[in-house]
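Protein 1 of 2
SEQ + STRUCT:
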Amino acid sequence: MVDVKNKRVFISVNDPSADVHCAGLIDALRQGGGGIEFVGIGGPKMAAAGCELIESTVGGAVMTYTAFAHVGHYYKLVQRVRRYLQEHPVDLVIVCDSPSFNFHVAKVAKKASVRTLFYVAPQLWAWGGWRIRKLRRWCDKLCCLLPFEEQWFRERGVDATFVGNPLLDKLPGDLTRLRKDYSHFEQQKAKIALMPGSRLAEIESLWRPMQEIAIELKRKYPGASFVAVAASEERRRLLEKTQVPGFACEYSVDTVRETAAAVDFSMVASGSATLEVASSGCPMVVMYQTNRILWQLVGRWLVHPKFFALVNLLADRELVPEFMPYFVSTEPIVRQIDAYLQDRSLLTRTSNDLIDMVEPLTHKKASEEVAQAVVEMLS
C-alpha cells in the first residue's frame, strides 16, 4: 500500500448498516498498514474499529417521510461538522449512505476544499434524478454497490466504480452449501424469521404487521416457531416492549445472515438486509410501509423502478414477493407466505435462484476495493 501516514480522514455515517460498512473499511485500511487517523460521526462499530467519534449518530436514523421532524437536529449536526472541518483540517471526507443528510455534509466538505468520496451510491436512478447535478458538484469519487450503477452514473459525468457489496465480503467462495433443500420440509414445523429493520421508522411501521402475520400463520400451523432479529440490544428492548399480545418468539441481535440460514422463511424490511437473507438462500417476502397520502400525492410519481426490493432489482425479475408499500391489509401477505409454505419445490427453487443471484456479486471484496480508492485519493 502507498504510504499515507499522517493523513486524516473524516467519515460521516447516520445509520447502522453504514456504521458496519465503514467499520469494515477502516479495518481494511488498517490491515494495509496505512497509518491513517479516522474521525467522524457514526456508531459503535466505527468506534470499535478505531474511529474517533465527535458525535454518535447511529440509533435514531429515520426514513425520508419522517425526516422532516428532525430537520433542526440535522441542521445543528451539519453545522457541527462544518465547524470541525474549519478547525481541524482533514485530507478526505467519506460520506456513507443516508444521502438526504450526507449531501449536506458533502457540500460542507466542498466549501472546505476537501475531496469527498461517496460510499454507497444514492439511488438517483430510482427517484430524485435531478440531484445528479449536486452529486457531480460535491462528489470526487463514487463507490457503487450495484453492478448497473457504475455505467448509469458515468454516463452522467460522475467518476463511479462498482466495488461490490460489503455485506458479502465474508461469504465463502463456494456458495453451493448455502442452498436450502426443502424436500423433507414440514409446514407444521416451519421456522420463520421476522426482520423489521434497524431504523425506528421501519420498526414503527413494520413490527406490528409482521407480528399479526405471524399470529395468522400460527393459527394454521400450530407447530410453527418464530425468531425476531434486532439490529442492536437497544432495538431488541424496543421490539420486546412493543410485542403484540398473543405473539411469541425468540429474539436474536445482529444476526441477519445467521438467522436466515437457520430458518425456512423470512419476512424482511426492504433494504440491505434482503441481500443478507438472499446470501443465505432463504426465501422471503419483502415489506415496506409509508404514509398513504404522501405516496399517492408524491411517492408514486417520483419512484419509477420496475422493482423496489434490492434482490429483485439485482435479478431484474421478481425472485421474491414484494409488498412495497401495502396499505389496506396484511391478508395478501399471509396468503403469499402460506403459498410458499405449501410448495416445497417453490421454496427450493427460490433458494437456488437467490444463491445464483448473489454468487456473481461475491467476486469483489467491497471493503478492499473502497480502501484502494481511499489510498489513491489520499496519494
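Protein 2 of 2
SEQ + STRUCT:
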Amino acid sequence: MFSITTRVIEPRALEEAVRTKDGGIVTFLGVVRDDDGEGRRVTGLSYEAFSALAEREFETIADEAGRRFGDVRIAIVHRVGELRVGEIAVAVLASAVHRGTAFDACRYAIDELKRRAPIWKKEHYADGSAQWRAGGG
C-alpha cells in the first residue's frame, strides 16, 4: 500500500487495498497540470525519489494519521520518471468507518507527504527549458 513506482497508478486497485467492510473511501489524485501556476505552459514533469526512504516515510505518515484520526487504512503511491500532462503523479487513499475521518486522514497524508517525503520534481516547459521545483510530492 506504500510505494514508489514507474508504472501508471491504478486508483481502483488501491481502493481495493484500503477498502474496509463499511464506511467511506477518500481518494486524492495529484495529476500533472499544463500550467506552473505562474503562467508558464508545462509539457511534463520528471520525478526522482529516494525510494526506500520515501516508502518508509509513507508508512510513518499513515501510522501518524491512525494515531490522530482513529481507525483508518491508507495507501500512498507516487510515480517517478517522466510524466505527461494529465497523468497521475501521486495517489493517496484513506478509508474509515466515518467519512469525516477518511477526509481528515487523506488530507493529512498528502500534506505531510509533500512536506516530508524525499521526492523531487522537475517541470518541463513549452519553451524547452526546465526547472526543479520545491514540494516534489
